[in-house]
Predict the structure.
Amino acid sequence: MSAASEGPTAAADLVRPAVTDSDPEASRRTGTEVTRATDAGASFRSAFASAPLAMAVVDRDGLVVTANDNFTALFGTAARPPAGQVAAELVDLTSDGRTWHAYREVLRGRRARLRCTRRVKHPDGHAMWVQVTVAPLHEGFQGVLLSVADISARRELQARLRHLQMHDPVTRLPNRTLFFERLTAALESEPEERGSTGRIGLCYLDLDGFKAINDTLGHRVGDRLLAAVAERLTRCADEAGFARAGAPLVARLGGDEFALLVEDSTGTEQLADLAESVLRALRAPFDLSGRRLSVTASVGVVERLAADTTATGLMQAADTTLYWAKADGKDRWTLFDPERNAHRMTRQALASTLRPGIERGEFRLEYQPLVGMADGRLRGVEALVRWDHPQFGILTPNRFIGLAEEDGAIVPLGRWVLATACRQARRWQLEHPAEEPLFVSVNVAVRQVWDSDLVADVDRVLAETGLAPELLQIELTESAVMGSAGRPLQVLQALSAMGVRIAIDDFGTGYSNLAYLSRLPVDVLKLDGSFVRGFQYEGEGAPPNPADEVVVEAMIQLAHRLGLTVTAECVETPAQAERLRRIGCDTGQGWLYSRPVAPDRISGLRARTTSYAVGKP
Ligand code: C2E
Ligand code: MG
Ligand code: MG
């Protein structure tokens, strides 16, 4: 290591004790003390020269007095050595106010130390990151010591690590972390600040059937496909950004999910164009080392005011919209629709309040008469559940039975329906001991057959209420009894053996055939309303469709021959009732007789029903 460019003279100067007349402390020093100081000066000098750090001594005016080799290597050239230069300019302490102030305070001895990181230029032109420390020279010496550590390598390593943390190795795209960082920053920035539109847009994309490719062709092919998809997406983004300030950010959010984030979007049209171009770009087959592969994608598109949304809100909307795109048939983009979303939210709200609603007793039953067609007499009633929802009002079963089946709440709900209906039927029987008792027909969902012990429930309820098994009818849909080997068949047989009647609800809408049903312990067919509706034009000018009548008549005859009785649903007009009676239908249910009503109105209807005995011979 050669001597600092200033030579030993300057180095000697710097360690010369600052003895002045105005320094009474110093003038009182003895000779020994001066020697000790000189020794200290010598060791300081050698430490200064051989330190691995770049160091310079700076005087109170901020000029470099002397510098060691390392400092000269970083900031000096032969033509322009550091000595005599303004130190603050060499290491850029002037560009920001706070640093500049702190530096001056250190120079004046009013502050102990300054440490900061700067990006500076090497005399050969390359940029470097340095850590700068400025501290007073130790007691008795003029000026401050400026030390500089070149931290470029560390910074570069940090940057590389950050890049690795923020990018996906398969596609080299920004990953989820970076995506959310950018999204959050975009949502937080003030629109006025950047003279922007204040809007934000997102295309959230998922490849259709990617899992199958991965499973059948292996992960390597899958990865190559993802990388190729990423390339095409990036091209789309670049083209979209061509005429604008910035291209959309393309990120891989995981698996086969990608996102294109449009900051400062101009409206849904811009996002629709982008989504369209993405689908177009993916449509061409991929050539992956000789293997041709075709994929399509589904895209959820959301575009809104940045101020109206959060990162989570935007992602949820995008997720829902992507789901719609898939559900609507894939290979398409779908725009977020607040109304469709509100519907989904209602479904969610209903699903989450089902079980507590059962516990709080928010459900009640209405009963709809089942009337003998031949004599118009009330034979029984069907129990139909209603939900008095505290928030959404009275809800019909079509709104919640499906949900209850999905999440299993149908089991406790069904148990409650069964018990309530049987108790009510028994009460009517006790209230009218002289009359023929009414039977009650209870709807049972498929899941109740599979997930609960329906036979035990029925057995217990009948025992508890004292209702005779013959006065209970269970309605199951075709799908519940279809292919009923195993459990459903055992359930049907056990119920039938107890004396409970089995009815097939909405018959004719499924795939079961009568011959098959007749082998099951089924007693009643409830003809779906759509058959009866086919009769509706009679008397209204349009001719009835004779084919409907022929089909229904044949069905009823066959059912009878197989030992089943037939109930027609949705009987709304006397004409329908008359024709049904003529072709042999046993029982009718519908608005003609009565809408579903509260239990206390059933007794009143009992007396009235004879008036419906249409066309009585
Ligand atoms: P479903 O068993 O076929 O019940 C008949 C449905 O048709 C009832 O609708 C009833 O109000 C309606 N209806 C009756 N007469 C007429 C008519 O003349 N014209 C028209 N257009 N409709 C008529 P609701 O009460 O909305 O019940 C719908 C479905 O919900 C029921 O169809 C049944 O499948 C299910 N459901 C009702 N209560 C329960 C229950 O407690 N448990 C289960 N698992 N499902 C139930
Ligand atoms: Mg029913
Ligand atoms: Mg029905």
In short: Residues 1-24, 613-617 have pLDDT under 50 and may be disordered. The chain has 24 helices and 21 strands. The chain has three domains: 3-155, 167-336, 348-604.
